[in-house]
């Protein structure tokens, strides 16, 4: 291969590719934070964030990554000793529940491994809670480790079918702006998001949406601390109170640009549709590579349970690890490690990888990843079925 020149491509599930126009929008000196256009821009961004999540209720911005967002959620949901049903469909769902547990919440973990949540089992677990101790069900919409996508509306329906008063909290960090998400229509009480995935921004903003019921829960949650409490942030007029201190000014400029791109220019539904088309092209390639007993396989068998922003897959015999190294060194493409598929010290860790296809992605980026992956498989002698790149091209052409 010729040496790596040209633009590199970080095809991991966050941080994602930041559009040049977003970088440019952020490339400004810090404004007067007490008055002027930054205040108007912030309020416009808050409105846009509500539109993005499909809610007319409440939203708050924290300066944190996704893990900080988890804690923001937990502190506003619970008092010490409260109980929750944690639904696990991969490492992230389990870790969110474990984080709550470490903060004093009693967790009943319903772990589906690396497959989608079964609403019938959630309903059964809630029916078994005859004393109605479970306050919240926590769910990951798309688990970035397994690439499982859960049917959020079906989980809500299972709570209702059990006649249980539990509220529903959803981690949409990996799916926000990529996969269909309708907070109010689907009866979600709380959503956690972050800036560095489908929102195409640098890490640094954690986002929290709350229903009226969730806000009521926040008023009595004794885990809340001065910074993480949502109460001063919601409906606050004073700009610094919205942010619990110095506002993240450059991130706000970037967020305003991103929301314009998604909500005004492309349109939210078309943004979701683009992610579906590109994801299907990737899945089609993997199906072709997996033919003939190569052992290459997508983690999620059921296409209806796959996230459209990230794809986790197996390339056995250490193939995934070798391929990742080849792509980075020879082709300037960085793929994600196989997080949570095996412990990092186990040799089979090298059998898994993930491709991030969230946010600022298009057909040529996806075809570039698939084409260079195929080149790497050839160069490394990794067994694979033929015709994957052509199959992906046909999938795109038919979309
Ligand atoms: C990335 C991610 C997180 C963690 O976010 P960080 O910014 O890495 O702390 C949590 N949940 C999901 C679903 C994610 O994709």
TrEMBL record:
Q: State the InterPro entries in the record.
A: Aminotrans_V_dom, Aminotrans_V_PyrdxlP_BS, PyrdxlP-dep_Trfase, PyrdxlP-dep_Trfase_major, PyrdxlP-dep_Trfase_small, SP_NH2Trfase/AEP_transaminase
Q: Keywords of this protein's UniProt record, alphabetized?
A: Aminotransferase, Pyridoxal phosphate, Transferase
Q: Name one Pfam family in it.
A: Aminotran_5
Q: Name one GO molecular function term.
A: alanine-glyoxylate transaminase activity
Co-factor requirement? pyridoxal 5'-phosphate
Judging by the UniProt lineage, the source's domain of life is Bacteria
N6-(pyridoxal phosphate)lysine carried by residues: 197
Q: Which residues form the Aminotransferase class V domain?
A: 9-338
**Family label:** Belongs to the class-V pyridoxal-phosphate-dependent aminotransferase family.
Q: What is this protein called?
A: Alanine--glyoxylate aminotransferase family protein
Species for this entry = Devosia sediminis
